[in-house]
Specification:
6-stranded parallel beta sheet; mainly beta; 132 residues; 5-stranded parallel beta sheet
């Protein structure tokens, strides 16, 4: 992890499984933003680690909201570790099995502002640890 930079992936598209099986470590003192992943099974079985991020945010907005089956399985079987003191926003958007079997871990001081998925079987068997 870098100490004081921002990390951003603005668009990931171009076929199935974009960013699947990836490991992303967010910067310690910067923000981490991953958005507009428009790929079936996008970020499936991926790990996003922001738990060392001290005072900034993690934002993950998947898909573009069109509601096609092109976004099925986004973040399926993925692990997300939220930052210690910042906001943690996760939106799987529309697509069947989006955020299914996902593990989301928030820290005691995380501000978990929203989790959203509107597809069939979204959050199926997901494990979400909320802030205390």
């Amino acid at each position: 992890a870098t100490l004081a930079n921002n990390f951003s992936i603005v668009q990931g598209s171009g076929g199935d499984s974009v960013l699947a099986n990836t490991f992303i470590v967010c910067p310690i003192k910067g923000s981490c933003s991953i958005s507009n992943i428009t790929s079936k099974y996008g970020m499936q079985q991926s790990w996003v680690d922001a738990h060392l991020t001290i005072s900034n945010n993690l934002s993950m907005i998947m898909g573009d909201g069109t509601g096609t089956d092109a976004y099925d399985g986004i973040l399926n079987e993925s692990t997300i570790q939220c930052p210690q003191h910042g906001y943690c926003n996760v939106s799987c958007n529309i697509g069947a099995y989006s955020c299914g079997f996902m593990h989301l871990w928030s820290q005691p001081t995380t501000k978990l502002t929203y989790l959203y998925a509107a597809g069939d079987n979204s959050f199926t068997k997901a494990q979400i640890v909320c802030p205390r």
